[in-house]
Amino acid sequence: MGHDHEGQRVSRRRMITGLSLGLGTLLGASSASAGVRTGGSAALFAGARACRLTPAAAKGPYYFDSDKIRSDIREGKPGVRLRLAFRVQESETCRPLPAAVVEIWQCDAAGIYSGAEAASIKATAGGPPSGDPGPDPEDWADMKPADTTRYLRGAQVTNGAGAVEFTTIWPGWYPGRTVHVHVMVHFSDKRVLSTQLMFDEALNAKVLARPPYSGHPGRDTLNSGDSDYRDDMLVKVVEDGDGYLGTIVLAADADRDGG
């Protein structure tokens, strides 16, 4: 058997689906210990937004299967702590979607993505992302990692309530894009939702004025000027000790029948 582990998430995802009760319960318990089960985040979920299909967004040029099942994706990266709690539900029935795989990935405080450090450093200097195919970002293929870094990437399996939680940092920015986090939901070994999360601009300004973000000045794109931005992508955020807690409900068309 070879030792190339990239791209093995598909087979692992099949395994997760088959063992959803055991692994989902385990990860659900881990999420609960981190705070998903608390009354505070439950109350935030209750008022997040009405049940309707979450708007889709391109996954962009920096997605690949990082093969990292974990809740804390920071790997020591400096930045303002951000807990992200998701409730995933079926868009037609509004029922929780257990045993779904939720992946997130984002840039660091300087606008750099793991697995693509050289390409994203070029992008922060104003150049196009590596492998840019032209005007339609949906045509971007899954990226083949160019280095061994995997920070600020990870996946979790939803528990019986459709909930997962990650610990990360507030994202930085790079030219042409507002502050955002990428999200992909998989169900029954299929990609059922690709979207992005955005943040209130008053909070973006407050966080980006602090180190280490302040070392990367000159932000050029706000939510209002970002082509992917939709109001339904805004995360509901509250202060959480020395950081923030963000919650959002993701409604996915799990059977992909257009409902």
Automatic annotation (TrEMBL):
Highest taxon, organism lineage: Bacteria
Keyword line: Dioxygenase, Oxidoreductase
Gene3D superfamilies: Aromatic compound dioxygenase
GO molecular function, one term: iron ion binding
Region (Disordered): 122-144
Record's protein name: Protocatechuate dioxygenase
Species: Nonomuraea cypriaca
Classification of source organism: Bacteria, Bacillati, Actinomycetota, Actinomycetes, Streptosporangiales
